[in-house]
Specification:
The protein is α/β, with parallel strands linked by helices. It is 32% helix and 23% strand. The chain has a domain of 81 residues. The strands form two sheets. An eight-stranded mixed β-sheet has the order 6-7-8-3-9-10-12-11, with helices on both faces. A four-stranded antiparallel β-sheet has the order 2-1-4-5, covered by helices on one side. Helix 3 packs across helix 4, helix 3 packs parallel to helix 5 and helix 5 packs parallel to helix 6.
Length: 325
């Protein structure tokens, strides 16, 4: 079976901001690939740069260094017409399903906003038919079309956001913590909905989250991010069963296990110290100050993201010395 075609590629992307204290490095030299039709999970603690990376892909932030390629073209080399076309092909589902919807617009107009901008439909009848089809696809019905966002539950509002993103038949959807504001029972419904829609429409997702337990249910591959850098990336199952970076192991050890016997017997990896400030990045490995395995080399030299097995990359000087997961 042939390798899926590369849809999006980031090469050495760095995004910085000027702040009162100096230069804040939100994304620090990221290399990443997303293939057509796949879901890449991007996980890490709050403030590690996940959302900034997503917004850089969406052209909301211009990278200070590096390039972002979509279907082989640098997205910052686009003409005005190509920029508009890019906004059709790459959409976003936001974290807060209420704040991302216009409280003064009915749901039908919200879903059709992108279609109106890009002139997707040729008549009012076609527009209404498309709105109804999209609402049906996400589990809403015809009676919802003239309601306002405050009349819906959180899960229903997120479905509206998904319908809006789908309205332009995108090739990639950046999902920025799309389930974190929802009840646990609703989270599974939204994840199952996203999986079904992906299968039907052959879209790719960048699924940004801090929840490693949930991302396993949807992601084909998972990239682990720490302090603006990718520290490990592999197939979903390899991240859980063959992880090689101490930070990945710390994140996984924090996930509770339903079996009380197993939960009591397993060894937790508790990190000490605080996450360094992105305004004043430490020399060497960004994780060295909190890593129980750090050596002098770790504090002096930044480890490259290297391939340790097919498709499995890790940025750790001592990954070969650490016991297997």
């Amino acid at each position: 079976m042939s390798e899926p075609r590369v849809l999006l590629e980031l090469k050495n992307v760095k995004t910085v901001f000027k702040v009162k204290q100096g230069i804040l490095t939100a994304v620090n030299g990221v290399d990443l690939v997303i293939h057509e039709g796949e879901t890449l999970g991007l996980v890490g603690e709050s403030g590690c740069g996940k959302s900034t990376l997503g917004k850089t892909i969406l052209r909301l932030y211009k990278p200070s260094q590096g390039q972002v390629f979509f279907e082989g073209r640098d997205i910052w080399s686009y003409s005005r017409r190509e920029r508009k076309e890019y906004t059709r092909k790459v959409q976003m589902i936001f974290q807060d399903p209420y704040a991302s919807l216009d409280p003064l617009s009915v749901i039908g107009d919200t879903v059709a906003e992108g279609m109106d901008i890009h002139r997707i439909t040729n008549s009012r009848q076609e527009r209404e038919k498309q709105i109804m089809s999209l609402l049906h696809d996400v589990g809403l019905n015809q009676s919802h079309v003239d309601r306002y966002p405050h009349e819906f539950s959180g899960g229903q509002r997120q479905r509206v956001g998904i319908a809006r993103a789908l309205s332009l038949s995108p090739k990639l959807i950046v999902c920025d913590e799309p389930i974190s504001a929802l009840d646990v029972s609703i989270q599974a419904q939204v994840v199952n909905l996203l999986k079904r829609l992906q299968k039907e429409n052959h879209m790719a997702y960048l699924f940004i989250t801090h929840d490693l337990s949930m991302v396993r249910q949807i992601a084909n591959r998972i990239a682990v991010m720490y302090l603006g850098s990718i520290v490990e990336i592999a197939d979903s199952e390899d991240i859980y069963l063959e992880n090689r970076h101490p930070y990945t192991r710390a994140l996984l050890s924090a996930i509770p296990i339903a079996d009380p016997v197993v939960e009591k017997s397993r060894q937790r990896m508790v990190l000490t110290g605080d996450v360094p400030s992105p305004v004043n990045l430490p020399s060497g490995c960004p994780f060295a100050g909190r890593c129980p395995h750090a050596a002098d080399l770790c504090r002096q030299s930044v480890p490259p993201l290297r391939e340790i097995s097919p498709g499995h990359f890790v940025a750790c000087h001592r990954s070969d010395e650490l016991p297997h997961a």
